[in-house]
Design brief:
heterodimer; A: 262 residues; globular; B: alpha/beta; TIM Barrel; 11 helices; 10 strands; 14% strand
Chain lengths: 262, 323
C-alpha cells in the first residue's frame, strides 16, 4: 500500500500562507512529518487561491525536495504547472491527474511518458462523476487503452474511481469498491488503483474511523495507493495490517514499524 | 509477427555479502568470497543477474567428531589437527571456505576453555588462506563468552560468525559490530521469525549487508520440502523488495544429510539399497542441489566427493541460459 501524504496542499491555511509568503518552514515540516508517519509519496498541490500556479508549484517542489527524498505527486488542474514541476523532480513523479476526456488525455499521457512519471487517471469526463460502477469502468477502459496508445507502462497508470462523501452520496461507496475489483481485470499487468481517501468522510463527524474502515475495504478490493493523512496513526496501522491479511507482505512481529519505515 | 517472451523482472535484488579480508583490507586472507547479488530466481540468467556463484564450505571441528567412517576415512590423517584438516579441505578437496565448528567448547564435549578455542581458530587461520565461517558449540552461555572472544581475537578478518537466534542474538551482534564481522541469523524453519530476527539485529545497527540467514533446513527425506518452501517464499519476497528477508542464505547440508539412516546404513543391513558410501555421497549431493534451486548461497558440507559433484553442478548452473 502506497500512502501518498495529502498535507502539502494550498487548501490548508498554513500551506496557503507559506506559499504566499514563500516561507519554506511549514512545507518542509509537513514533508518530514508525513515521511516519518509512513508516507511513501508526497502530494504537492498549490491550492485554488494562488494566482501564479506555475511559480508556486516550482517553489513547492524545490523546498520539499530540500528535506525529503520521497517521490512527489504533482497535483494540479494546470498542466503547465505540472510540467514545470516535473522538470525539477529528482525522482520519477506522479501526475495528479487527468480525466478520461480526450483533450486532457492527449496532453497528460505523452507528458507522463516523456518524464518517466506515473499518471493518475480519473474515471470521469467533462460531464462529471458517474453514478455507478459500469460507467466508471467504461472510463477506466478508455484510460487503459490510452496507456497502450501512448506507450505508458500499465504499472505507471493509477486509476482513481473517485469516492464521494458518504454522508451525501452513500450509494457511491459500494460502487467504487466494485469498480476497484474490476479495474484489476482490465489488463495484464493490471493498472494500479488510487483513491483520494479522505473524501469519503468529508463533512462527517468521525472522519478517521470512516477513512480507515473504507481503506481496509478498498484494499481488499485491490486498492494500491491512497492520497491520505499519513499522520493518522490508526490509519497507518490498518494499512500495514491489511497488507499482512491480504498476504501482500510476509508477517513478522514488527510489521507495523517496518511499514512506517518503508 | 514477433512473439514477445514475457520475463519476470524483479524490483529488488539480494544484497551482496563479502566474507574475509585480505592484507590490504586489514586481514590475512589470500582472497575474499562474495555471495548474493541475485536479481532473479536461482539460475534464471534470462531474467536477471546471478552475480556470484554459490560456494561450498567443508566442515572442520576442534575435536574429533563422531562421524560415520565413510566420512572420517578421508580425514583420518588430520582429524585431530584442525589446522591440517582445514588445509586438506582447501588444497585437496576444493573447499571455497572453511566452516569451523567449535564443538569442543561444549560442557559435554570436553568443555575447552575460551583460550584453547581461540588458539584453534588462529591455527586454522594460519593454515589456510580462505575466509572462515565460525560457529560455537550450541551451549548459549558458553557460546556468548566464546564467540565474543574469538570475534575479538580475529578482528579485521571480516569472518562469518554464528549462530544468532531470536532468544540469543545481542552479544554476538554486538561482537560482530565492534570487531567488524558478519553474522549468521538462524531461525527454526519459521519465515516470520527469520524476518523478525533480521529486524532485531539491524535495530542494533549491524548493516543488512553483513547478515547471512540460516532458515534451518530439513535433510532430504526429512522435511527438505519445508525448507524449500520457506526459502522460495523468502526469495520471492526479497525480489519484490522485502529487504528484511533479502539476505543470502546458508544451509547445514552436511549435518542434516549425514544423520539420516539413508546416508549411513550399511549395505549388509539393507542390501537392496546398494553401496553405502555411494548412497551417502549422493544423499548429501542431492540435498545440496535441491537447496541450490531454492536459492541457498553457502552450502556447509562434509564429504569431499559430494563437494566435487556439487561444484561441478554449480559450474553447469552458472552457464548463462539467457535467450
Amino acid at each position: 500500500m502506497i500512502i501518498i501524504g495529502e498535507r502539502i496542499n494550498g487548501m490548508f491555511k498554513d500551506i496557503k500562507q507559506a506559499i504566499q509568503e514563500r516561507d519554506p518552514k511549514p512545507v518542509q515540516e509537513w514533508a518530514k512529518r508525513q515521511e516519518e508517519g509512513g508516507a511513501r509519496v508526497l502530494d504537492i498541490n498549490v491550492g485554488p487561491a494562488v494566482s501564479d500556479k506555475v511559480s508556486a508549484m516550482k517553489w513547492l517542489v524545490e523546498v520539499t525536495q530540500e528535506v525529503s527524498d520521497l517521490p512527489l505527486c504533482l497535483d494540479s488542474t494546470d498542466f503547465v504547472a505540472i510540467e514545470e514541476g516535473l522538470k525539477l523532480c529528482k525522482k520519477p513523479a506522479i501526475i495528479n491527474s487527468t480525466s478520461a476526456e480526450r483533450s486532457k488525455v492527449e496532453i497528460a499521457f505523452p507528458m507522463a511518458v516523456k518524464y518517466g512519471a506515473g499518471l493518475i487517471g480519473l474515471t470521469m469526463d467533462s460531464k462529471g462523476i458517474p453514478k455507478d460502477s459500469d460507467s466508471r469502468l467504461a472510463f477506466a477502459m478508455e484510460l487503459v487503452a490510452a496507456a497502450d496508445e501512448f506507450g505508458l507502462p500499465m504499472e505507471d497508470l493509477y486509476i482513481d474511481p473517485l469516492i464521494l462523501p458518504c454522508n451525501v452520496a452513500q450509494d457511491h461507496a459500494p460502487e467504487v469498491l466494485k469498480t476497484l475489483q474490476q479495474i484489476k481485470m482490465l489488463a495484464n499487468p493490471a493498472p494500479k488503483t488510487v483513491l483520494g481517501l479522505s473524501n469519503v468522510s468529508n463533512g462527517c463527524q468521525n472522519r478517521p474511523l470512516i477513512n480507515r474502515v473504507y481503506m481496509a475495504m478498498a484494499m481488499a478490493c485491490g486498492l494500491d495507493a491512497a492520497i491520505a493523512d499519513a499522520n493518522d496513526e490508526d490509519l497507518i496501522e490498518v494499512a500495514a495490517t491489511a497488507e499482512i491479511l491480504l498476504n501482500q507482505k510476509i508477517y513478522c512481529d514488527s510489521y507495523v514499524k517496518l511499514f512506517i519505515e518503508g | 509477427m514477433a512473439v514477445e517472451i514475457l520475463r519476470e523482472k524483479s524490483r529488488a535484488s539480494v544484497p551482496e555479502v563479502t566474507i574475509g579480508a585480505t592484507k590490504e583490507e586489514g586481514g590475512t586472507r589470500t582472497h575474499t568470497i562474495t555471495v548474493g547479488g541475485d536479481s532473479a530466481l536461482p539460475f534464471h540468467h534470462f531474467e536477471g543477474e546471478i552475480k556470484n556463484r554459490p560456494v561450498v564450505a567443508l566442515e572442520v571441528q576442534d575435536i574429533v567428531p563422531q562421524w560415520h567412517e565413510n566420512l572420517t576415512k578421508y580425514y583420518s590423517d588430520v582429524i585431530d589437527n584442525p589446522g591440517q584438516w582445514a588445509k586438506k579441505c582447501v588444497e585437496e578437496y576444493g573447499a571455497d571456505l572453511i566452516y569451523l565448528k567449535l564443538n569442543g567448547a561444549h560442557p559435554d564435549n570436553g568443555n575447552k576453555s575460551v583460550e584453547e578455542c581461540v588458539a584453534v581458530v588462529k591455527d586454522v587461520l594460519a593454515s589456510v588462506g580462505v575466509p572462515l565461517i565460525i560457529v560455537g558449540c550450541d551451549d548459549e552461555q558458553k557460546d556468548n563468552e566464546l564467540l565474543v572472544a574469538v570475534a575479538e581475537a580475529t578482528a579485521g578478518e571480516n569472518l562469518l560468525f554464528g549462530n544468532a537466534e531470536q532468544t540469543n542474538y545481542k552479544s554476538l551482534t554486538a561482537a560482530c559490530m565492534v570487531h567488524k564481522h558478519n553474522i549468521i541469523a538462524r531461525s527454526p524453519l519459521d519465515i516470520n521469525i527469520c524476518k523478525q530476527l533480521n529486524i532485531l539485529i539491524s535495530e542494533m545497527n549491524l548493516p543488512l549487508s553483513r547478515i547471512i540467514i540460516d532458515p534451518t533446513i530439513g535433510g532430504l527425506g526429512y522435511g527438505i520440502e519445508y525448507a524449500y518452501s520457506i526459502l522460495e517464499r523468502a526469495r520471492l519476497g526479497a525480489l519484490q523488495g522485502d529487504k528484511m528477508l533479502s539476505m543470502p542464505v546458508i544451509a547445514t547440508v552436511g549435518y542434516e544429510s549425514w544423520r539420516t539412516k539413508e546416508a549411513t546404513l550399511s549395505e549388509e543391513e539393507n542390501p537392496s539399497w546398494g553401496d553405502a558410501e555411494e548412497r551417502g555421497i549422493l544423499w548429501e549431493t542431492t540435498c545440496a542441489t535441491a537447496l541450490l534451486q531454492a536459492g541457498v548461497n553457502i552450502l556447509l558440507m562434509r564429504h569431499p566427493k559430494s563437494v566435487a559433484l556439487v561444484k561441478k553442478h554449480i559450474d553447469d548452473l552458472m552457464v548463462s541460459n539467457n535467450y
